[in-house]
């Protein structure tokens, strides 16, 4: 993790926020732990803000301004630092993905974003934003493709994915798009040893993640977090007891899913279905 003293505050708005927070904290004679206690977070979290490894939150910035006597200075900087290409509700999770050493994800109906093809992502985006201009659609698709580059980076996380069999049967974008998407999944699993795919079959019945998309993220020097997402909304979960509950549920889902080998065979069979005849759910 970059240390505050090593940061160039003018690199980006988040670095400037971190630099200003450190300046104000030291001017007020607070340690990171002392300041954290005043605003109901850990000293380690204050350190992450100062090191520009976490995106600042507006409500926390308001409390920091109050404790540090800085008016609305940090709140204004926070608004700049929180600008993102992705949806606001997903921005913090997208940022955390870049630092994760392992991501364990469950997709109930859709292919996870990091493994989507351009055609599949475009079809999903058009469905989610039916009245958006084409330029807006293409902007969303471009951003998603940029995020997918994470899996090819030198610091790519271990990416363990469980998708429900229903994902294979929903013809997003039509037969050609689905064939391309499922073929892409097969190539990703074969070409990247850090990508593991499993399919939760219909025969597995109900389970805790049946109606939601879940990502568990682990880090080298930070506590694990969970991100859950639904239509037009998402939430980060950092409470240790809840994170542990999600992890236990994910372990059960992993045990109930098909083995990686059987999963790839099922995906390959579904891909062939999209090339041979009209697909019916």
From TrEMBL:
GO terms for molecular function: DNA binding. It holds the Pfam family DUF5753. InterPro entries: Cro/C1-type_HTH (IPR001387), DUF5753 (IPR043917), Lambda_DNA-bd_dom_sf (IPR010982). It comes from the Bacteria. CDD domains: HTH_XRE. SMART domains: HTH_XRE. PROSITE patterns: HTH_CROC1. Residues 21-74 form the HTH cro/C1-type domain. This is Transcriptional regulator. It comes from Streptomyces agglomeratus.
